[in-house]
Design brief:
426 residues, mainly alpha, Growth Hormone, Chain: A, 14 helices, globular
Length: 426
């Protein structure tokens, strides 16, 4: 772990010698930091606000708002980004998000209908898809080819860390403030201010610096969109011919489904079953997210060893079996300490499976189809999570204590472990 961390820091030092990389990275850090603050503001308003009668259905709706734009808009973002100056996308996209986030704050203060709040939040998160795509597409314009792989490793990692820190700031501010709509609105306003800074920081780069080179003839928008749809269909057909990759994606979708259903249960427990108020619930939720994050990090460390020791599919089956055994023991008491341990285990299991799935898809899918298959993968990954939230909303009681949900998810883990073990023998 220390070697990985040291290598990442060294790569960052090398890249920071590039002036325009520093400027682009600053836009990313501010943008994703603001994302973290904004998303925590949405979660605390929907789940912990005294003004809201939080329900599993409301949580499922919030997850759909946060995740579906990534899934549905992602494959089509490039169609427009190849026609717009990327610097302008970063500038105006963040400025627009600052305005829309301010509107979200006004809706919170005005106790507006929840559907209107969701519509405002959806607008902000939808723009994020274009921002992230523009940041990735612009990287080759600010570093040389030799260091591009390094930049693709360092920049998204730094952005993820920034988003996590933003979420921590938003949660910390919300806990310190008195309960009420004014506290939620204040956190949203903080996010709006950081979005504004992110947009203005893009002005340090020239309009043409980040591309694209508009002298090339571009197909019209509608044919380009149709081509994207056709490409996704061709990727699906290719995936049907690569059975191992298709099975790995199906397994990953099931594991993501389990993780999503248990996330909704955790939110309801934190809101109604634990602690003496919203602040206690938010603090426990923050701990659970932290433990899950530690599980993700442990997966990055352990999966290379596990894949060598048991084989890729063997490691995936072992992880699913571990979750099947430990989840009932840790989850059914519905107490904070066992649930925190379960959050770590499920983070480890889910991320380990994702690493294996990524590797299987990369190894078995032809290079010419890999991008389209990963677009389908991204859509499936998020849709499974949102679908799980919808199913959980039908099963969970108001306080989140559902033995039926825990047992059902455990049985899915058992089925996954058995199925993957069979794949391994084929």
């Amino acid at each position: 772990m220390a070697v990985v961390r040291a290598g990442l820091i060294q790569d960052g030092r090398v890249l920071l010698r590039f002036r325009n990389f520093r400027r682009l990275l600053l836009v990313r850090l501010l943008s994703q930091f603001a994302d973290g603050v904004y998303q925590v503001a949405l979660a605390t308003y929907v789940v912990f606000s005294p003004e809201q009668e939080t329900s599993p259905a409301a949580i499922a709706s919030a997850m759909a708002v946060l995740l579906l734009p990534y899934s549905l808009l992602g494959p089509f973002a490039g169609v427009l980004l190849d026609r717009w100056r990327r610097r302008q996308v970063l500038l105006y996209g963040n400025l627009l998000r600052a305005v829309l986030a301010s509107g979200t704050a006004a809706l919170v203060l005005g106790s507006s209908p929840l559907w209107l709040f969701y519509l405002s939040a959806l607008s902000v998160t939808a723009i994020n898809r274009f921002i992230l795509a523009a940041l990735s597409a612009a990287l080759p314009r600010v570093v040389d080819a030799e260091r591009l792989v390094m930049a693709n490793s360092v920049s998204p990692t730094a952005g993820t860390i920034a988003a996590t820190m933003g979420g921590g700031l938003g949660l910390g501010v919300r806990i310190l403030l008195p309960e009420g709509a004014h506290a939620d609105a204040f956190v949203v306003v903080i996010a709006a201010g950081i979005y504004l800074l992110g947009g203005l920081s893009a002005l340090r780069m020239g309009k043409e610096l980040l591309g694209p080179q508009l002298s090339f003839v571009q197909p019209r928008v509608l044919p380009a969109v149709a081509g994207t749809v056709r490409g996704l269909w061709e990727g699906l057909q290719h995936l049907a011919e690569r059975r191992l990759a298709a099975k790995a994606l199906a397994v990953m979708a099931l594991l993501r489904f389990c993780y999503g259903a248990l996330t909704v249960m955790l939110l309801m427990l934190a809101r109604y079953a634990w602690g003496n108020g919203a602040s206690d619930g938010m603090a426990l939720l923050g701990l659970a997210v932290g433990f899950s994050g530690l599980g993700f990090f442990a997966a990055a460390v352990l999966t290379p060893w596990g894949a060598r020791r048991f084989g890729r599919l063997g490691w995936m089956a072992l992880c699913a079996a571990l979750a099947a055994v430990l989840l009932p023991a840790l989850g059914l008491p519905f107490q904070p300490t066992p649930i925190l341990i379960a959050a770590f285990v499920l983070g480890l299991v889910t991320q380990s499976a994702k690493i294996v799935t990524d590797t299987v898809v990369q190894a078995t899918v032809d290079d010419g189809f890999r991008g389209r298959v990963f677009s389908l993968y991204d859509m499936l990954f998020n849709v499974a999570f949102v679908g799980a939230a919808g199913v959980a909303s039908l099963m969970l009681p108001p306080d989140g204590r559902s033995a039926t949900l825990v047992v059902t998810v455990s049985l899915i883990y058992v089925a996954v472990a058995i199925a993957v073990a069979r794949f391994r023998r084929e």
